[in-house]
Protein: ABC transporter ATP-binding protein
Amino acid sequence: MSVDLRNVRLTYPDGDRALTALDEVSLRVDPGRFQAVAGPSGSGKSSLLAVAATLQRPDSGSVLVGGVDASGLSAAERTRLRLDEVGIVFQQPNLVSSLTAIEQLVAMRHMRGGSPKRYRAEASDLLATVGLDGKQHRRPHQLSGGERQRVNIARALVGGPSVLLVDEPTAALDHDRGARIVELLGEITRNHQVATVMVTHDTEYLESVDGVASMRDGRLSTASVAGVPR
Ligand SMILES: Nc1ncnc2c1ncn2[C@@H]1O[C@H](COP(=O)(O)OP(=O)(O)OP(=O)(O)O)[C@@H](O)[C@H]1O
Structure:
């Protein structure tokens, strides 16, 4: 399924004025495509992800997930759509310190619903997908920063979402670990045929993406050539 933002406008109250966080933003990402959105701090990247995740309603414009316009849905229907179709990789892994890697995924599975018997098998497969075979029973403090980010990514894939939204996945990592995480996201995008949007202020790691859009002051320009921002 694709994620499709059409002429999205989002403002925040700012004293007696309104601050425009997203200014007529349009972006469509199809299954199996890895789209980066690069821009400086405050340019609107997190706002774009929040709107794409249907966590935040735009002032105007529409957000379609798999062709379904989220603005026409009730809050409960939006939540269901998000649980079924959208995986979110937050910048901070926010792992539960007392749970092992596999338990982090199983806990997410309970939220999404599904057959309990298959919880652990699915979780185990996803941890293998992100290269954590053999580390499934470690707690967050027994994992490196890169490994915690891998658990974070695996957790976002629980339930087989069709859209993957990723916020600054390299922020806390050194260059090599950051590069490997972005490569992994590219592999997941292709192998799981998800529509992936990754926001980043870092243009260092963009070799494996299919396109780069630039964000500046809430405006998005989608011009890009084979991973190189213009
Ligand atoms: N809840 C809010 N209320 C008011 N203004 C906000 C709110 N959230 C974000 N903003 C403002 O909206 C603009 C876009 O913020 P956003 O967090 O989307 O940018 P960003 O590109 O993700 O930045 P960063 O890389 O620093 O996280 C900024 O000017 C920010 O100060």
User: Anything to note?
Assistant: Helices lie at 45-52, 75-85, 101-112, 116-129, 145-156, 175-192. The pocket of adenosine-5'-triphosphate is lined by residues 12, 19, 21, 39, 41-47, 201 (CB under 6 Å). Residues 225-230 have pLDDT under 50 and may be disordered. Residues 175-192 form the longest helix (18 residues).
